[in-house]
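The material for today's practical consists of a large collection of protein records. There is nothing in a record beyond a sequence line and a structure line. Backbone structure tokens are a discrete shorthand for how the chain folds in space. Nothing more is needed to start thinking about how sequence determines fold. As an example, a complete record with its sequence and its structure tokens follows.
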Amino acid sequence: MAHTLNALKRLRQSTKRKLQNKIRKSQIKNRVKLYHKYLKDKDLAKAVELLPIIHTLLDKAGKKNIFHQNKVARIKSSLQVSLNSLKKDSTAK
């Protein structure tokens, strides 16, 4: 247990930030799962509508150091690639 006032304050801050980060991470995970569900169901309109929202959430998470910037870029890229491949398959038919 922390003994000084400064250490107690840092403990309070870190637990509060940990909770906020957990909430943000779960929001992103849920939206990405929904996005993949739309892609699986071949619902392009909803997937295209959801993608900018996910990008915004990821950018904010990267800016607040919840995720590393490279991880954010990697996730955004993989989401876009999966959408592009589905678009390509739908136009080829």
Observations:
- The two ends are 64 Å apart (CA to CA).
- The CA atoms of residues 37 and 43 lie 9 Å apart.
- Residues 38-88 form one domain.
